[in-house]
Design brief:
Elements lengths: L7 H10 L6 E5 L8 H24 L19 H11 L1 H9 L3 E5 L3 E5 L5 E5 L8 E4 L5 E11 L5 E11 L2 H12 L11
Helix pairs in contact: 2-3, 2-4
Protein name: DUF304 domain-containing protein
Organism: Fuerstiella marisgermanici
Keywords: Membrane, Transmembrane, Transmembrane helix
């Protein structure tokens, strides 16, 4: 495709998304980072969660090593799933880093495409009309995010959670935004294919 090194699986995913006659003008993979916005929140929430779960198990066992000569008390074992959940949340930065290698951003002559991997793959297409409200969030080294939109959901407690999507973690956020703005300016050239 272009002079970018991506895995065969990502290359196949891009090829399967392209429409007949659609040409790729830009491909980039996100920079691998351990601490993204999502993984940082999960990591810091996991610290007190896991410590409390361990403290609860210790308290349930009487703050002593269990003595199996007098029988076995199952009550402290109820804390183990909470410790495991805490350990999973503590590993969120590792998963964020690994998922960067399973993700790719593509700009074609018709649309922008994000393919974000992980436990499941999410593919989003952004046509020129979808790019009107995008904005850039940049770090001091020029890397950053070009945010195209946000999803909002409520959890079981009714708390609102917003998740940004777009070209996240790119090496040169301004150059990526400029390319997307060129695509956005071609609104009438290709009609949206929703079928």
């Amino acid at each position: 495709m272009l002079d970018v090194t991506i895995s065969r699986k990502l290359n196949d995913a891009i090829e399967s998304e392209l429409q007949p006659g659609e040409t790729v003008s830009f491909i980039e993979t996100p920079q691998p980072r351990f601490f993204t916005a999502a993984s940082t929140g999960a990591f810091f929430f996991a610290i007190p969660w896991t410590l409390f779960a361990i403290f609860w198990i210790a308290g349930a066992s009487g703050f002593k090593v269990p003595d199996f000569n007098n029988g076995f008390d199952l009550f402290p074992l109820f804390g183990i799933p909470f410790v495991l959940i805490g350990l999973a949340m503590l590993s969120a930065p590792i998963w964020a880093y690994r998922n960067a290698f399973k993700s790719v951003y593509v700009i074609t002559d018709r649309r922008a495409i994000t393919i974000v991997g992980g436990f499941r793959t999410t593919v989003r297409s952004f046509f020129p009309d979808d790019l009107d409200g995008m904005h850039r969030s940049e770090r001091s080294d020029g890397s950053g995010d070009v945010i195209i939109g946000r999803t909002t959901r409520r959890d079981s407690d009714g708390d609102l959670h917003r998740t940004a999507y777009g070209f996240l973690g790119v090496a040169d956020a301004k150059a990526t935004e400029d390319r997307l703005r060129v695509l956005a300016s071609s609104k009438s050239r290709y009609p949206r294919d929703d079928g």
